[in-house]
Amino acid sequence: MAPRTKTRDRIIEASLELFNAQGERNVTTNHIAAHLGISPGNLYYHFPNKQAIVAELFGQYELRVDQFLRLPPEREIQVQDKALYLEALLGAMWDYRFLHRDLEGLLDANVELAQRYQAFAARCLQHARTIYQGFVAAGILLMDEIQAEALALNAWIILTSWVRFLGTVGADAGQLDQLQLRRGIYQVLALESAFVAPEAREAVAALQRQYFVALEPLLRAPGG
């Protein structure tokens, strides 16, 4: 069983690498098999089609986000926790950036994946609301429940759309780097600015400076 498991894992790792570099739509199962030096039949033994590979990768991404998008256990949330959440989000977005690049296309092609994503999105939004309410309870943010809900939704829209936004201004899949994603994290922090309690403003401003990336280099002129 060990060689079989190893081949399956190699297929997943290679698929993630190729999807991130070239975009999922531009990569076929034949490309993946050739990249690994295995036959297409060997690949199909483990995965019947590319959709099954995408579903497996989404499962990894889903598990990773579910693990960190929680309030700290047994203690009050702190400003420093923002950095932990942001770095975890940045890492997940970077490692699975192909999912964000063509999300609608992936979901249109797979009804089961679309249903899983809807449940995942609802769960993330609820967890984000709970985290924002935790910051309110800790006296870091000043907002009511409706504002916390709106902030969670706006943050979700930015985070899930940022990679596609970068693509519209000239960054293709192979050109993306983590610096560009950091600006997306900054955009989420910027949403909170009006709600930061006076005693937390200095610490939150320091975080904003840490994640700020100038917008001009991201907006590449055609042919530039």
From TrEMBL:
Membrane-spanning parts: none
HTH tetR-type domain span: 5-65
One Pfam assignment: TetR_N
Annotated signal peptide: none
SUPFAM superfamilies per UniProt: Homeodomain-like
Gene3D superfamilies registered for this protein in UniProt: Tetracycline Repressor, domain 2 (1.10.357.10)
Sorted UniProt keywords: DNA-binding
Entry-linked InterPro entries: Homeodomain-like_sf, HTH-type_TetR-like_transc_reg, HTH_TetR, TetR
DNA-binding region (UniProt annotation): 28-47
A single GO molecular function term of this UniProt record: transcription cis-regulatory region binding
Protein name: TetR family transcriptional regulator
